[in-house]
Write a structure and sequence with these properties.
There is one protein chain. By secondary structure, the protein is mostly helical. The chain contains 5 helices and no strands. Helices cover 82% and strands 0% of the residues. 27% of the residues are buried.
């Protein structure tokens, strides 16, 4: 495997590992999602891991395009730092939501995550338009997750 393939693989594995670790740390409490009241238009539970897997792959590919860009190194560094920060927020959300049941707090956490994703996407856009476009489904899903999170907070 050449270096670009290895780097692409690593770029995809990192967000998948973040999501996998978050699931591992909250797996004991994820079952509660089936027991709580959910707002209208809530998707079935099986859809979440499917969507998140796709989103993690897309954001990994996006980060690869940014990392391998020929743009100035300082803007790439800032974009990737922002990417890592939003990944950290992403990692902590299920732990706060499922393990601690902090429904209202996690709604505001998601708003902060959404702002970080939009900020990161904007930085990605300055480096690679394709990388930014790959982040759009993530923005849309987190916006939708905010609706679900707020609905759960209100109903429970």
């Amino acid at each position: 495997m050449n270096n670009n393939c290895k780097l692409l693989f690593l770029s995809i594995v990192i967000p998948l590992a973040v999501g996998g670790l978050a699931t591992f740390f909250s797996k004991e409490n994820i079952f509660m999602f089936n027991l709580i009241e959910k707002p209208p238009l809530s998707p079935p539970s099986w859809l979440f891991p499917v969507v998140w897997t796709i989103l993690y792959i897309l954001m990994g590919v996006a980060s690869y395009f940014v990392f391998t860009s020929t743009q100035k190194k300082n803007i790439i560094k800032i974009a990737l730092q922002s990417y890592v920060i939003q990944l950290l927020f992403n990692f902590l959300w299920p732990i706060l939501f499922f393990n601690l049941g902090l429904y209202f707090f996690t709604f505001f956490w998601l708003l902060a995550l959404l702002a970080l994703i939009i900020f990161t996407t904007n930085l990605f856009y300055k480096i690679s338009k394709l990388a930014a476009y790959l982040m759009v489904p993530y923005i849309l899903w987190v916006f939708w997750a905010g609706y679900l999170n707020l609905g759960i907070a209100i109903l429970n």
